[in-house]
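Re: beginner question about structure tokens

> Can someone show what the tokenized structure looks like for a real chain? I only ever see the sequence side.

Sure, here's an example I had lying around. Input first:
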Amino acid sequence: MKALVLAGGRGTRLRPLTNTSAKQLFPVANKPVLFYGLEAIRDAGIVDVGIIVGDTAAEVRQVVGDGAQFGLRITYIPQEAPLGLAHCVLIARDFLGDDDFVMYLGDNFLVGGIQELVAAFTEGDYSAQILLTPVDDPRSYGVAQLGRSGQIVGLAEKPDQPASDLAIVGVYLFTSAVHEAVRAIRPSARGELEITDAVQWLISNGYHVHSHLITGYWKDTGRVRDMLECNRIVLESIQTRIRGTVDDRTEITGRVVIEPGAVVEASVLRGPVVIGADTKIVGSYLGPFTSIGDRCTVEDAEVEYSIVMNASTVRGVSRIEASLIGKGVEVTPARATPNTHQLVIGDHSTVRLRG
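And the corresponding structure tokens:
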């Protein structure tokens, strides 16, 4: 079995951060979300991985490399424009050959991995397997409608009036039958080759498509609130590991990770918290579910339930909460600014806030 990982797309729901960075490389507990998918693929026993890349190809290649760090063999497959998930399968035909494969959306986060899902597909007599989970607002997802016996009776991509609350999770398993399906379908009204149309084609032409209702945690990290929620879930499972320097004026409660080269002085850390390498925390409060990236400075500030990416500075700010701060950002005081802040800040920005 092979894997096809989708790391193209423009990430419009995370702009302006995605104007300069690949959404699949945004950090969850200081590790790119894409890495969680690659590790899940490796743990399922898959070695050969094709990665679909778009405008951010250079950044993805630089961070992921040849896959050796994961024990994988990576092949990069360029996509000239985001023309749909089924288009990704179409252009990956030479890489995939006639092998079964798992298609994994690189910005999806699935707790518990895919080992059992891959095993069930391998043992079952299926041409395709899709994963479903109930969501509050299915209009943003592919949606499945099931019959009384649990069979799939209809699929729709981002419908205005969903037939159910069952969203299609961004992990699919296919046999080579899907190649005929993606060649047979036509672009949707959005101008894309939809994978839901390809799966519907398989069903309509007598292929066995299995649906599996997942009970574990899943998120499409396409929005700020989803990134913060994934960060919370991962931080829930961390164990205390202090490799940096912490002075005796600092108070630590709960599980905290402090990476090598980090310095914490006269601060309060309420875990779970992760502090990246070579970061400096001085006279500050870091509340639960906060990740501070590498080479950051947090001084005389309060940050809680937030993600601060690499090489950013937060100084003299009374309170930051539920925020996602990009790389190379500077947040400093300014006059006549409200005391409560909720921020979505693009890379290399400067924001001045009241202290």
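Each token stands for a local structural state, so reading them left to right follows the chain. The CA atoms of residues 51 and 92 lie 9 Å apart.
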